[in-house]
């Protein structure tokens, strides 16, 4: 699996090509899908550019992206301020505006409540962890584990996650993004790449946009594939 993480919580000042509006997210989603990406992870924004879980704003973003790339998985983040369980509850009638899956950080004290709220509105749960964690007695609806790691701790976190038997997506952030990507590709775990994780290409130069990062990721992934 190759997922593109298109914007994250970054601001427009961090990169001129960061997609924030539904239309820009849809454009980038279509471009990376053409390179073979099967999932996009996005942080929907409100009219002033702040991350949001408000049903109407989420629905606009998801429906716009889905119209551009009908077959792609759409993942959103739940790491925003506010009464998140109530906001997620408002997604129930969204239909085409509801995401397929949403990420929940296990370090968040409310993670179990968030997972249950997502399950009630028929959205799959993608657990995110950055350190070895006891994940016994998982709530319903968990379909994937995303490991946000460094190259130094990736092995120990994976040792805690792999016995669950769930699909694993492994990624790093900023300086760790490309080393962890290379490690994950060698292990044949799911991987992701995009402006949320890094603004730079493997050679350290500023990337032009999400498409350029994903193109580098595809080449890296092919070079690490078993022969």
Brief summary of the model shown:
The protein is an alpha/beta fold and 227 residues long. It is built from seven helices and eight strands, in the order E-H-E-H-E-H-E-H-E-E-H-E-H-E-H.
**Helix vs. strand class:** alpha/beta
How does CATH name the architecture?
A: Alpha-Beta Barrel
Strand order of the largest sheet: 1-2-3-4-5-6-7-8
- In terms of DSSP E residues, the strand content is 15-25%
Record field, number of beta strands: 8
Uncertain ranges: none
Query: What is the domain total for the residues?
Result: 1
CATH superfamily: Aldolase class I
Which descriptor suits the 3D outline? globular
Explain what the structure shows.
The chain is built from 7 helices and 8 strands; from the N terminus they run E-H-E-H-E-H-E-H-E-E-H-E-H-E-H. By secondary structure, the chain is of the alpha/beta class. The chain has a single domain, classed as Aldolase class I (TIM Barrel), CATH 3.20.20.70. Strand 4 (101-105), helix 4 and strand 5 (124-129) form a beta-alpha-beta unit. Helix 1 runs parallel beside helix 2 and helix 6 (177-187) crosses helix 7.
